[in-house]
Structures are given as structure tokens and as C-alpha cells.
Amino acid sequence: MTDENKEKIVEAGALPLYVKLLSPEREESEQSEATKGLWSLAFKCKGRVLKEPGCVNGQYLFIIVISVLIYRPKRSP
What is the pLDDT tens value at each position of the chain, 77 positions in all? Predict the structure, then answer.
């Protein structure tokens, strides 16, 4: 995903959809994929991600941090 595409995704209104996928009612796999998507988007659109209501707060921040630690790609030696 290029930086230009990240901006387009955010501008298209995807952040509220990611927030919905982070909710505890969703499957773990959906939460994980949403976390990965937000993590990727945040590298270019950090301000927008942080300002999105419900995107980074309390329990969701915990989910993001744990998911990133668990699912981050392994680096080759």
C-alpha cells in the first residue's frame, strides 16, 4: 500500500469502518485485520487515525498494541 493509496483510503472514509471492526462484538480475525490496516494507515495518516472517534482509545488501543506485537512480520536474519 503506497502512501498515496493510504491517503485515498482515509479520504474515502474508511476509518469509521475500521473502528466498527475493532469492536468487541467482532471476530478476533476481523479485529486483527482492522488493527493491521490501521497500523499501516497510521504511518502516513497518523493525525487522522488518532483523531478518529473510537479509533485509538482505551480497550481499542490495547487491542492494537497487542495485535501489533503478536502479528508483526518476522524479520529475516
Answer: 898 999 999 999 999 999 898 888 888 888 888 888 888 888 888 888 888 887 766 555 555 565 655 555 555 55
Whole-structure pTM value: 0.69
Q: How far apart are the C-alpha atoms of 73 and 9, rounded to whole Å?
A: 22
3-class DSSP state of 2: coil
**CA 43 distance to own-chain centroid:** 10
Domain residue extents for the chain: 3-71
Q: Compute the distance between CA of residue 17 and CA of residue 22 in angstroms, rounded to an integer.
A: 9
